[in-house]
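Subject line: Sequence and fold of a protein, written as structure tokens
Area: Proteins and the way their chains fold up in space.
Start of record: The labelled sequence and token lines come straight after this line.
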Amino acid sequence: MYRNGRRRSSRQFTVFFAANGLAESRFGMSVGRALGGAVVRNQIRRRVREILRLDRGEIPSGWDIVVHPRASVAKAEFASLEDELLGLVRNSLPPAAVSQSGEKNSGGSPENPGAGKSRSRGPAS
């Protein structure tokens, strides 16, 4: 994930993501000791988990997403955290890395899912 995926950062979060080829996105979180004691780290985890729970439908499917919050997340207003994290995820990810049938896109990459596909020009005459 960290080596092969991509990374985007904002004031409060760093988000790592990579296509997973599944019909849904999976989430992870890493809250290190440097962010504070156990109570503070658990508070940060609860806040990020709640944002992801409330807004899961707005996050594109087909991605593995790992969130690294910064220490300021513990004291920031929830609404601003929600806006920042969702904006970061939505603006960083293409709409979907998986087709509706749940299969991986054939050819191309998550950034350009149509690359490598042959395009039909209509019925042959």
Q: What stands out?
A: Confidence is low (pLDDT under 50) at residues 97-122. Strands lie at 6-9, 13-19, 26-29, 63-69.
